[in-house]
Amino acid sequence: EAGVAQSPRYKIIEKRQSVAFWCNPISGHATLYWYQQILGQGPKLLIQFQNNGVVDDSQLPKDRFSAERLKGVDSTLKIQPAKLEDSAVYLCASSLIRYRGPSYEQYFGPGTRLTVT
Amino acid sequence: AQKITQTQPGMFVQEKEAVTLDCTYDTSDPSYGLFWYKQPSSGEMIFLIYQGSYDQQNATEGRYSLNFQKARKSANLVISASQLGDSAMYFCAVAGDMRFGAGTRLTVKP
């Protein structure tokens, strides 16, 4: 079974530029998550999709971050314009179902390391 | 909002010994789940173990077990017979809005 795919793996941009990350979840996984992990911290949930609908985007800085999952499969996360504090690893994860009750663990992709200079 | 606290920034353990990594949480949900993940230096997040709040028994997965004390809102991870490959960051998380703790860096010494 193929894992969660993410691209690019690394990206360096200057502040005020825009950047986009792509994620392809495990086939059949309805729920997709985007996390931001700043160095030395735990992952912070940015947005959660169930199929192509947004379940939770309460921690997404909507003035500069956007995400979509148009066909309920792969997803893109965009930052425009980027700030220095956006330097982090952006992790995508998927699971069979949203976490309520039974255990459906998340499978994480390798992440995209973003450096904003 | 849920809050997860991991009070041990770093832990050391001798190879083949057991180690306990602490996690306390705060949630108002009547039913919830708790996860532990491992993140090696390569960066990938690896699922270790899950505990449901209404599970009668503490969860176990191979060398990993969860010491769940619901009244104290504590969900400590116990790793038995530590191996050098266990050296990594360990994160506790509460299902729902998937809030993670700050993590504990475990170093296994030979």
Brief account:
Chain A is mainly β.
Tell me what the structure shows.
The complex is a heterodimer of chains A (117) and B (110). With 117 residues, chain A is mainly beta. Helix content of chain A is 0%, strand content 47%. Chain A has strands at 5-7, 10-13, 19-24, 31-37, 44-50, 53-56, 65-68, 75-79, 88-95, 107-108, 112-116. In chain A, strand 5 and strand 6 form a beta hairpin. Chain A starts with a strand and ends with a strand. Chain B is mainly beta. Helix content of chain B is 0%, strand content 52%. Chain B contains no helices and twelve strands. In chain B, strands 2, 5, 6, 10, 11 and 12 form a six-stranded mixed sheet that branches. In chain B, strands 3-9-8-7 form a four-stranded antiparallel sheet, with no helix packed on it. The radius of gyration of chain B is 13 Å and the shape is globular. The model of chain B has no long low-confidence stretch (mean pLDDT 92). At the A-B interface, strand 5, strand 9 and strand 10 of A face strand 6 and strand 11 of B.
List its salient traits.
heterodimer, A: 117 residues, mainly beta, seven-stranded mixed β-sheet, globular, B: 110 residues, six-stranded mixed β-sheet, 12 strands
Protein topology:
The complex is a heterodimer of chains A (117) and B (110).
Chain A lengths: L4 E3 L2 E4 L5 E6 L6 E7 L6 E7 L2 E4 L8 E4 L6 E5 L8 E8 L11 E2 L3 E5 L1
Parallel strand pairs in A: 2-11
Antiparallel strand pairs in A: 1-3, 3-8, 4-5, 4-9, 5-6, 7-8, 9-10, 9-11
Chain B lengths: L2 E3 L4 E5 L4 E3 L2 E3 L6 E7 L6 E7 L7 E2 L2 E6 L4 E6 L8 E7 L4 E2 L3 E6 L1
Parallel strand pairs in B: 2-12
Antiparallel strand pairs in B: 1-4, 3-9, 5-6, 5-10, 7-8, 8-9, 10-11, 10-12
Strand content of chain A: over 45%
Taking the sheet with the most strands of chain B, its summary is: 6 strands, mixed
Percent range of helical residues of chain A: under 10%
User: Averaging pLDDT over every residue of chain B, what do you get?
Assistant: 92
Total DSSP E strands of chain B: 12
Task: Calculate Rg of chain B over CA atoms.
Answer: 13 Å
What is the overall shape of chain A? globular
Largest interface: which pair?
A-B, 24 and 22 residues
Tell me the number of helical segments of chain A per DSSP (H or I, 4 or more residues long).
0
Oligomer: heterodimer
**Distance between the amino and carboxyl termini of chain A:** 37 Å
Order of helices and strands of chain A: EEEEEEEEEEE
Beta strands of chain A, count: 11
- What are the low-pLDDT stretches of chain A, counting only 5+ consecutive residues below 50? none
